[in-house]
Amino acid sequence: MIAIIDYGVGNLFSLTSSFKYVGADVVVTSSIDEIKKADKIILPGVGAFGDAIKKLKDTGLDKIVIEEAKNGKPLMGICLGMQLLFEKSYEYGVHDGLGLLKGSVVPMENYIDKDLKIPHIGWNALSIKKESPLFKYLKNGDCVYFVHSYFAKNCDESLLATTEYGKELTAAVAYKNIYGCQFHPEKSGEVGLKILKAFCEL
Amino acid sequence: MITKRIIPCLDVKNGRVVKGTNFQGLNDVSSPIELAKYYSDNGADELVFYDITASFEERKLFTDILCEVAKNVFIPLTVGGGINTVDDFDRVLKCGADKVSVNSGAIKNPNLIKEAAQKYGNQCVVISADIKRVDGQFMVFAKGGRENTGMEAISWIKKCVALGAGEVVVNSIDTDGVKGGFDIELLKLVCEAVNVPVIASGGAGNIQHFVDLFKEIPTIDAGLAASIFHFGEVKISDLKQELKNNNITVRL
After folding, report:
1. In degrees rounded to 5, what are phi and psi of residue A101?
2. What distance in Å separates the CA atoms of residue B86 and residue B182, rounded to the nearest whole number?
């Protein structure tokens, strides 16, 4: 059973549908018991970092995610959910993240070329930096679907893949049992479904 | 580098996909679910669904179909048609849409863009504009291209982006259905005016028209078409291969 954490951020319809499509048993939940019982955890998220981390903390779900991850349960953050795994974010102020991965989340603005549009929206190619069971069905150059204005930096320890948008941006991370995708696997067609399938098989 | 997107558009009425010429004379083409899956499997980068129904019952049928599509197709889905309130955004987002396109609803109430962008983020709000030349000026038309709003097109689009629209679909009424190529003149003006993704719509008749679009306007993000895809005149896989042969970055 995979627990998709519901903390009132974003729409989980497509994420749930895509896991069901690859044959996974999923539950969308905010129950600590269910999260503890699950074999794996998905931390989704769209919107602003500050709001999201506040909601996670207000519901007490931050502690359970940290605890379960430290116990070795596979955890994958998606989009903003990936960003939450880091130590800090500089999105509208400075916010502490969950601190499960080393690194911080910073704006693309003033980092990438000025003529590039922000958010970075669309299909872009992955440059895979190391081997990981999460990407066992992927090949270098596979395209995935991105929608974001901030990205993770100084995360060499966990860096799994980058994508080129003016500069190299962190696209995916993997460190021990903790994974993250900046892009949306549930919207990345065949390639995305292969990532979800691989996560289910961890 | 980010790839150029190819987007089939599915006009849905009574649960079926239809496409007319110059917005009139609709023909039943196929099942939305089958078509969506077919396109996704064959390289479409995104799908646009326009709900061209009017009644409450038909709208319910549309959202049921949308849910069914979103359970089986895992590429970005944009929904337009009949979006007049933030509740309408909510209704289609809950069924698996990723972006919502507003047209007449924004003309009636431009603040809808602002409210929706604040609630769901700019990336979720797409402004779709039907534009036609009138006495040498580009004007915005409402009601499926039948009524001149009296608003100049470029200033309208700039206003929508300032209010929070994160993407622009430019439908040229002059080139729509003619299959003589995209409206390069109009699209260039829009791309110069805004710094959000711009999607070209109206006029694609063959593969070369897409090559011309991306060659002549390197900053344009996507090309949208309907009938040439639905009737199999252009296969998306052939189209993308030809774009690649012309050094245009695409997802293959």
Report:
1. -125, 150
2. 32
Q: What percent of chain B has pLDDT over 90?
A: 70
Q: What residues of A are in the B interface, CB distance below 8 Å?
A: 11, 13-14, 17-18, 20-21, 46-47, 117, 119-125, 143, 145-147, 164-165, 186-189, 192-193
Is residue B236 one of the residues assigned to a domain? yes
Average pLDDT, chain B: 91
Which chain B residues touch A143 with a CB distance below 8 Å? 3, 251
Work out the pLDDT band at B26, boundaries 50, 70, 90: very low
Q: Write down the catalytic residue from A95, A120, A148, A184.
A: A184
| Active-site residue, selected from the candidate residues A79, A91, A148, A155 | A79
Q: Is the peptide bond before A119 cis (omega within 30 degrees of 0)?
A: yes
pLDDT band at B129 (very low <50, low <70, confident <90, very high): very high
Residue B22 has pLDDT above 70, yes or no: no
Q: For A135-188, where are the alpha helices, taking DSSP H only?
A: none
- Report the complex ipTM: 0.92
What SS3 string covers B60-117?
Answer: HHHHHHHHHHHHHCCCCEEEECCCCCHHHHHHHHCCCCCEEEECHHHHHCCHHHHHHH
Q: Could you confirm whether A67 is annotated as catalytic?
A: no
Residue B198 distance to chain A (closest CA, Å): 11
Does the domain formed by A2-200 have CATH 3.40.50.880? Answer: yes
Nearby residues of B180 by Cβ (< 8 Å), 6 or more positions away: B203, B205
**pLDDT tens for residues A46-80?**
778 998 999 999 999 999 999 999 999 999 999 99
Task: Give catalytic status of residue A186 as yes or no.
Answer: yes
Q: Where are the domains of chain A?
A: 2-200
Assigned domain for B252 exists: no
Q: Which of B45, B51, B88, B130 is catalytic?
A: B130
How many Cα atoms within 13 Å fall on the side-chain side of residue B145? 18
Q: A117 and B197: CB-CB below 8 Å?
A: yes
State the pLDDT confidence band at A14, using cuts at 50, 70 and 90.
Answer: very high
Would you mind telling me the total number of residues written for chain B in this entry?
252
Q: What is the pLDDT of residue B25?
A: 44
What is the domain range of residue B58?
5-245
Residue B143 maps to which CATH number? 3.20.20.70
